[in-house]
Amino acid sequence: MAHVDMPLPELRAYRPDLAVPDDLDRFWSDTLAEARGHPLDATFTRFDGGLAVLDTYDVTFAGFGGSPVRAWLHLPAGNRGPLPAVVEFVGYGGGRAWPTSGSSGPPRATPTSSWTRVARDRAGRSGTRRTRTRRAPPRTPGS
Q1: Where are the domains of the chain?
Q2: Beta bridge mates, 70
Q3: DSSP assignment of the chain, as one string?
Q4: What is the pTM of this model?
Q5: What is the mean pLDDT of residues 53-61?
Q6: Could you say which of 2, 38, 39, 43 has the lowest number of CB atoms within 10 Å?
């Protein structure tokens, strides 16, 4: 069970005193302009995961600063139309693993005929420790 340091009514009413850096708006406008300044360069490589009901793709695209981001794309087998999607952002405790594993694959959430699923690696992981990318830490407002 979760441990909290305040009763629920106090948590709901809590309003922290947040210091907003003077350059916050400029930071985000510059960061978004930079992100739009490089191509997405998305690739979709079919992966045979041995699941007859799913089409699985190994996806790579350019993320922040052009760093490669990897993900598994699971689609209902044979479906070629647009579908709503669930995007899973794997936490810092792991990566996307194999497409059939419980950490990112069908045992946790299986696409049906009406939706698809994307399980992406956290930034800099790209699946395994051996393929991690190294880059400078991201800028933050006020730095």
Answers
A1: 38-130
A2: 60
A3: ----SS-HHHHHH----PPPPTTHHHHHHHHHHHHHTS----EEEEE--S-TTEEEEEEEEE-GGG-EEEEEEEEETT--S---EEEEE--TT-----TTSTTTSTTT----TT-EEEEEPPTTTTTSGGG----PPPP-TT-
A4: 0.61
A5: 88
A6: 2
